[in-house]
Amino acid sequence: MIPLDLRHALRGLVRRPAFTAAAILTLALGIGANTAIFSAVWHLMLAPLPFPDGDRMGHLWNTTESGFSVVPSSGQAAAFMEASRTLDWVEPYSSLTMAWRGEATTEVIEAGLVTHTLPPRLSVSPVLGRTFDESETAAAGAAVVMVSETFWRTRLGGAPDVTGSTLRLDGQVYEVIGVMPDRFSRFRQHGTARAVWLPLVRSAGGRTNLVAVHRTGVSPDEVGEELTAISANIAESQLGADQPVTKLTMPGQGLGQNTRTALFVLLAAVGVVLLIACANVAGLLIVRSGDRRRELAICVALGANRLAIFRYLFLETILIALAGGAAGLLLGAWGIELVRSIRPAYLSELDGISLDPVVLAFAGCITVLTIGLFGIMPSLLAARTNLREQFSASTGGSTGSPESGRTGGALVIAEVALAVVLLVGASLLVRTMVRLSDEPLGFDAAGTLTFSIDLPRDRYADQASWSTFGARLDDELEGLPGVEVASLSTGVPPSLGILFGRLSIEGRAEPFDDRIMNSAAVSPDYFRTLGIELLEGRAFDGTPADDHSIILNRATADRLWPGETAIGRRMRVSPSDASPWRTVIGVTPDLAVHGPAGDRTAQPLVFLPLDFSYGFFTATVRVRSGDPLELVSAVRAAVARLDPDIPVRAAATMEQMLAESVGRQRFNMILFTTFAGLALVLSTVGLYGIVAYNVSRRSRELGIRSALGATPHNVRAMVIRQGAILAGSGAILGGLAALQLTGFMADLLHGVPPTDPLSFAGAVAAVMVVSMFATWVPARRASRVDPVVALRQQ
Predict the structure, then answer these.
(1) What average pLDDT does the structure give for the chain?
(2) Comparing 98-112, 251-265, 363-377, 680-694, which segment has the lowest mean pLDDT?
(3) 415 vs 1, which has greater pLDDT?
(4) Please, are residues 60 and 246 in contact by the beta-carbon 8 Å criterion?
(5) What is the DSSP code string of 684-742?
């Protein structure tokens, strides 16, 4: 049986459906937005890895004095495993992409390489079959593979007899020995889930990723200090003269500072939305309680004490909060889908977020929090009903309570101030995207299609085979209908390669202190394909004279030979003094190497002639007209004619690549702007509600003013002035708060200062314009109060 107080509370809410629906929807928006963003933050940054020691598990990285991070060398890995006293265990792993030959097509899949000891370390057992044994990771050549559960179900049909079957990967046949649960991929912390797993053979050279678990009671900083000391005793090259600092990176840290900042800023933004929603509902309850004071006074007259009144009203707020929480979960699930749909490519892990138990608990906690934020004050105010005043009001005094109006006005000012803070942040991010879209690229991205080819090393094992395949591929692409020009390279902007070494200039004793350079090895038609107009000199022409040539960007040429021409100068680009001198034959504009937001002068940019000493190519074609994506099927067919086991990887237009290069900024802008829009709508509703309430409370006064000669224009102006004072006060407070808070967004901006005047002015103007619209309706109603009715009431 439903308790009497609960029945009364439900009946009270049902009798006022408009108020109830508005309050529930307002809370649902705030709770739903918080739930969606917390799901992302929890999954990416806060959740421990799903293993017994997941809260102590991290990855080892070397960070040099120049700020570049690389995985440890094999010598470091062996030393860490042997000498570390702060780690429980260390395990190497690696990854690569492979070509899987299915029944109809060849696909690119992600593969991981692990030792036979890693699954038991993580307490992960196969769904079917077995894991690798020691013999399979002791020496290269074991043609066995484990597949992920998702790959097994979606690509292999989920057949229970999959073990013992074979997969063709990079043209080689592998036997499937087991199916691993999808959570096995999570030890990597971030990145794309692996489809298959191959045996990793510990080798004496090269570098490898390392996953480690630190001992209980030891901090990650203490681990880093010990491992750095161990690294200092290893006699091997460490990125030139730099002595690396080894760090244990815990879950969430591997995302990078900019991404972590963005996620926390978004979480703060939805927290502000929730505060505005709670203030809005509190204002609605205060307005409603002002209209119900006579009703409550009658309850007091009939014997109800103030505690009973408070309990009855507070129970209503609890019901509103619970309904808002339930609706918020539904909106949160929709919000998660929105986050997935707009996520940048590097946050592919967001595809796995869901309303898991922790997220549900979070939604429950903020639902309870909202009860305290918006429920207690209105209930206390209403419970302080003055019986005599309310009965006198029934005979002609003004309805409602001035105290309710003042409290509601204060809440509206707070709402507007918070909305201005979010609008300023959204304006800064929008301005950032505008600046990025206006950045000169240095090349023509329109009409170009690019894709990658990775040659299997077991069938293409030397430079001669790579060169032959590359020449044939270039001929195939040049012969495709609609292709104007094609080129091969090791990378195109905004994703060029990295070259380790130093710049040595002929005639100068000291080399420039550069160990990291943006670079690409390119074929002769590269600059024509990308529409790059050389500022000086010429492009490569494919003759033997190019073998020892080099092309620089403008910033590098000016840095090395300020005020002089770089053409004809000689330099080395290598850590070795035995490398050949290269002659500068051309200078390009400064290109958007890392996308429009990249710093084009921070590192040298060099172009070398393509000599096919690599096992991979990036092919680029420029079409005469039309959509370059229409050429993808013809490109796949051309590559299949050369080798059906080689897939076309990452086919995309250069415009798509550029769009993805600013995916982080676009992701931040869309979400932040959405939350700012919600805040503006909620604060506008709150302003409308309090102005409309004051108009209703002062209806007799307004009628008397009209009777005494006030024109409708005068009455409208008075009401609009009241709304403008509330909105203006909130805008001023919000602007001052934004001046203090936008500094936290500096890492998210490009070409726009955190105190950008246009962004502040735009946010304040938007609030004031919308506020005027919000007060127009109650002002218009006030100007139509009939003075005859008002005088009769008086």
Answers:
(1) 82
(2) 363-377
(3) 415
(4) yes
(5) HHHHHHHHHHHHHHTHHHHHHHHHTT--HHHHHHHHHHHHHHHHHHHHHHHHHHHHHHG
